[in-house]
Design goal:
Elements (H helix, E strand, L loop, with lengths): L2 H14 L4 H12 L6 H19 L9 E3 L6 E3 L12
Helix pairs in contact: 1-2
């Protein structure tokens, strides 16, 4: 996983999960050591974000979910929402 992408994941994680300091410290350490985030950790974060979206939006949430495309071992994760429609609220 590219370092820039890992940094963006870490930044988003810090905004969304402020109560989980240990996880943030662990991710920072991995990032500083040029280690990538494990696949299971990444998928877990995707699942958490999607669960929050379903809970908050309740209806018509499908278009906002993080989705995977591609075959096994070559999957890509994406959003099908225009970036100008995405806002982070603190």
């Amino acid at each position: 996983m590219p370092t820039e992408f890992s940094q963006r994941i870490l930044d988003s994680y810090k905004e969304c999960y402020t109560d989980y300091d240990y996880n943030i410290i662990s991710l920072k350490k991995k990032l500083s050591m040029q280690e990538s985030i494990s696949t299971s950790n990444f998928r877990s974060n995707v699942s958490k974000v999607n669960s929050i979206l379903k809970e908050v939006l309740q209806t018509n949430y499908e278009q906002f979910l993080i989705q995977s495309i591609g075959q096994r071992f070559k999957k890509q994760y994406c959003l099908f929402v225009p970036k100008e429609n995405i806002n982070f609220i603190k």
